[in-house]
Each structure stands twice: as structure tokens, then as C-alpha cells.
Give the backbone structure.
Amino acid sequence: MNLDVIEKFNQILNNIRPSERNLIERSLTPFVSNPDAFEIIVRLLEGLNSEQLEVVAYPFDGPPTLVLGGAGSGKTSTLTRRLAFLVLAGISPERIFAVTFTRKAAREMTERTRQLFYYLRDSASEPYRTWLNNISMELENAWITTFHSAGLRILRDDPFGIGANLLLIGKGAHSRIINEEERNLILKNLVKSYENEEVSVEEIGSLISNAKGAFVYPEGFHYIVRTRIEEIAALVYPEYQAELDRRSLLDFDDLIFKVYELFEKHPEILEHYQDRFQTLLIDEYQDINLSQYLIGMMLAKKHRKIMAVGDDDQSIYGWRGAEVTNLTRFMADYPDVRLTKLVRNYRSDATILKAANSIWKDKPEELRKVLICSKADGNRNSEPIRIISAENEDEEARFIATEIIDLLGQSFPLNEIALLVRSHYLLAPIVAVLEEFDIPWVQAGSIKSLARPEVLAIVSIMEVIALTARRISVPGEWHTGDLEAINHALMQAITSPSYNCPSELLEDLLQLPDPSSLLLDDTARAQSSQVFDKRLSYTIDHISSIVKSSMSNSSIWRPTALFDYIFRLANPLENDDTESPSWRALRRMRELAEIASVRRTNQPFESILQFTEETRARAGLLPDEGESTETDSNSKPAVQLMTLHAAKGLEFEVVFLSAMEDGIIPVRRRKDDRKTDDLEFRYGEEKRLFYVGVSRARKRLYITMSRKRKNEYLERESKPSPFIELIPSELTEKKKI
């Protein structure tokens, strides 16, 4: 056996805590007798710290394990190696149930595991070289996925050759999955009898979704209602589920809910999957909801081979059902649980870690993680945290821009500078100054709430106006693509909530080679009115008047001004409920318009078209926009702008936490918002969000705020976020500007 390999193996053993050494040695013993396998396993474990080694090489037959992975502790790399270790130990990839929070994370885990096998293969001899290569291909059959994707796979599976599992719960083998828009269309018909009560279809849908996430059946919802809207949801829920069953449809929540129903009604099916999966690995445990927790427990109940990995300090999705208490619930459900904490941080300098640790100084010891700086030079070159208090948001933005220019002079790359805020609207004054200073920027993340017909109504009319302007201004550049684009936008505008013109009335209009030509041709439009339905003629006349008036009014050729102009003339809203999802979506669109309005372009219509394209992309209305913060790797260097939620899982050399003021973080909600029922829970989640922001920084951290901030056109006094006071003053350098 290679002496160099033996020496490395001994170093690995010496790196393990004495209390765990016998356990890990027992796990590694099967590899020792085979020199080739031994060399592969040593190469796999090289470079891991003691806690990571205990996770990766933990015995397969040990009790359930809970891993608390602190920020920057190499959790993803550790999980990847754990997967590889299980396969090297003889477990087939298809018998490992490994789930994580997003499809992006699942794809990344699969690819990193495959690359790890390639790495091990390149130094292996035959037959292991071929075997490792084949194993990397077999990962396509592994259950490295999300809970919802795994649920769909189980429902469509046919384990006993008698038909899909869906048939056992009264669904068709090819039941179609509906999206949120289709769900809302079904609900819209069911809530018509409650129109006088200003019922929001989206809120009813959310309540039903939450009920399914807590495994509340239609007949049981009325037992837990507290408000009138919940009472209505309890009445609608049985009708909605009956409609899904009648049409053999599944909504997104059914991908978990129906698996639970399947396992409850058919224990033989549950036992099949319990035996099929030799081990379970569940990542991002702090982000799962009750239904996902229970599915995991059901699968693990027979053999108890489960490893849960999470970080309670980064649980920031309670608003969509995630329960941070699942971590403590796991410990209660498995009294013999083995708890491992990954606390060695390889990301941030020492001062930043001390600040992050101070946020949780009063946390119970059992779950508290004190992060340790393991970064080269992280202790020696650590800089103080810069806390800046500005007179107002304009001065705050100007400081940030000036500092970014200084950072560029210190050779910090633009892509490694991030500016994080609590909400999108806070970016507007910052973007204005970045544009003034010619500093490139990019805003990451999608905004699902924008995917509404009211938003599409404004977007489509803006596109019609901007494309008409381009047609007039640069006729030589007009091409087929523009013609298709303007007519597509025109058809969307006509059928949008601004006009509610039935799509069947478009048939005559679509016979024209260029329907958009009617907008500027009064004679042709008058002739067409003799043929068109009156509603269609009125709609075209109205859109034409908006287009013409826009052409002659230079003051509205900015995204914000044009938005306001269209909203006044073609309001797509049905009611004045300013807290409805429609109003909220349009307010968010206007916030984005404010940011886009400061962008400088050669032609006014260019900024409008750029804004509408970005809005469609953020709403998920363009093909394959990816998930949350995926960006184009070939894009030009730019400062990264995003919300704190979108920043989770990312890291940057320099981070600016902007607008860190009380009322913004923790966020101030309306007094009648039912979400404030558990104030302690809400405050805790906001605190975790602040922690996520602090722990994104590798080298330098700025925390900025304004002493005065405009709120609904009035300038109001503001106070620093109480979370800033959690950071010891000796770690900071404070400045007032």
C-alpha cells in the first residue's frame, strides 16, 4: 500500500475529535483491505475539517443525524462528499433520497457530485476508473431533487406493475399539474357568490395552499378558521378540490399533499419506498414546511437512516410556510439524534464573523453556533464594519456611489460588490446616483407578484407606444420582429383588464397584414369600424388616442411618467382596495419604473422597451428565467443589486446593507395585518434576515442608513434598525454624513 496514502489517512484520523474517532474508524474499516478503494476514499476525505469529516464519513448504520451548517462553513461541499461517500460505501444512487429547497440547488448538487466522481476517477486505476465513470452517469437516476419533484415522481410511479400510484387516490395516471394562474381561474368562478365582500382570489388560494401544507383536508378547514376570509376559504376549499378531482387535475401543493394521502391510505406503498431508499438526506431543513417534514419522517420511520442539514439562523421563509421549529422538532422526534455543528467559516474575515455571532449571543446553547474564522489571513487583515448615518437617502446613495469608486481604485471587482436592501423600492435613489456616476449595475431576482394581468395590461400598452415611436423615429430599422412585437402587444392590450375585449372579437382584426397600422391611420380606422364589433372599435380608438397623445407629450417619455399616464387613462383595476394583490403588483411595477427612469438611453423609447422587457422577465413571462438570483455569466461587470432574500446562498468581497432603519428592518406592517399575530416570530425572522445580510460579506461590510427618508412624498424622521445595536461598538467604525 502506498506510504503517502497511509500518511494522509493517519492525518485524517488525527484531524477527527477523539470522542468521534472510533465511530469514524469503524465507518472507514471496509475500505482499508482494498488498496485501490482505500486510495479513493482518502482522496475523497482530504482537506476536510474534523466536523466535516464526521458528517461525510458518518456510519451508515448510525442513529439519525442533525447537521447545523453555519454560514460559509462549506456545507454544500460537505453534502456533495457525503453523497459520494454513500455511493462508494455500496449504496446505489437510485436508493438515496436527497432533497433540497430549489431545483437550482438540486441541479448544482447533482453536477458537483458528478464532478467529484470525475476527480476521483482521474487518479484511479482499473476497474475502479471505469466504475467511477459509470457511477457518474448513474446520477441521472438518483433522487437528488426537491420535495415537489420527488412527490410527482412518486405519484406517477408504478412500483408493483399495476398502474400509477395516482390511480390509488382516484386520479388519472396522466393527471395534469396546473400553475397558479390556472388555479386562480378555477377559484374565480367559485368565489363569485362572495363578490360583495371584496374577496381576493389570490388570498383564498394562499389560504387553501397553507391548509394543504399543514395537511388540513377540505372537511377539516372550518374547525380552525379565525376570520371571515378564512371562513370563506373553508367554504370554497371543498368545491375547489372537487373541481380538481372532477377534471383529474393536481395543483402544486398536491404534489406533497397527495403523497401523504397515498401513504396514509396504502401503507404497503409507503413500505415500498421505505425499503427502496436506504438513506435520506434532507438539505435546507430550516426552509421546509410541516407537510414536507412529515413526508420525510414517514419515509425514515422504518429504518431511521436520515440526515437533516440546515441552519436555523438563516430561516427567512416563514411567510411561505417554512417552520424553523422543524429543527428542534427533529431532535424531539429522535431522542438519540447525533448533532454536529459546522462552525468553521471559510468565507468572511474575523470582524464580520464576530458581528454575525453577536446577533445570536443570547441564543440557547443547544442550537447556538459560534462561527470560527478559518479563512487564510482572515484574522490578520480584518477591517472594522463601517456604519454610516446619512442626512437623507440621497446623501446615503451618494456616499455608496463614492465609496464604490474608491473600492474600484483598490482593485475590488465590480461583480464582487453587492448592495442589499430589505425591499425593491429602496433601490430607486441608489440607482439614480449609480447612473449619475456611470457605475454599471444589475438587479438580480424575479418578482412573482408581477405575473398579473393588470401588470401585463400596462406593459403591453407601454410597448405599443414605444414601438410606435421607434417605427416613426427610425423607420429604416423597422423589421419583421418589430412588426410581430407591436401586434402581439396590441392584442394583449385589447384583451387585458384595461378593456376586457373578448378574444373572439379579434378575428377580423387579425385578418389585416398589420393591425397596428390602424393606430395612426384615422381613415383606415374609420373604415374598419364599419366591420368590427363596437367594443373592439372603441378599444382601438381609445388605444390610438393614448398613442397619439403620448407622441406629442415629451414630458411623459420616462417609464414612471408613462406608467402614471397609462394608469390614469386605462386603469386596469376593478376596485379601489389598495391592499389587493393587483394594487400591490402595480405598486411594485411602479417602483421598478422609478429605478428604470434614471437610466440614460439614446432614444426615449429605448428606456421604455428596456423596462417592459425587464418587467416581463421579472414576472416570469419570458422563457426560462431561472430561479431567484441566476444571472448571465457572460454579462458585463456590474454592481449587484438585490434584496436580502435574494442574496441568501451568495457571497461577495464587499457588501453594502442599505436603508437599515427601524420600520424597514424589522419591517413595519399595517396594524390590521393578520401576519402580525405572532410578533415574536416575525421579529425573529427579520433578525435572521439581517444576519443573512451580514454573513454575505467576505472582506468588507458597510451598514448604511438615513436619518430622514421620504415616505409617500413626505420626508420623515427615521431611526437606525435595532439590529445594528447588537454589533459591539469595538467592531465598528461609525461616521455621520
Notes: Residues 453-473 form the longest helix (21 residues). The radius of gyration is 29 Å. Confidence is low (pLDDT under 50) at residues 622-634, 670-677.
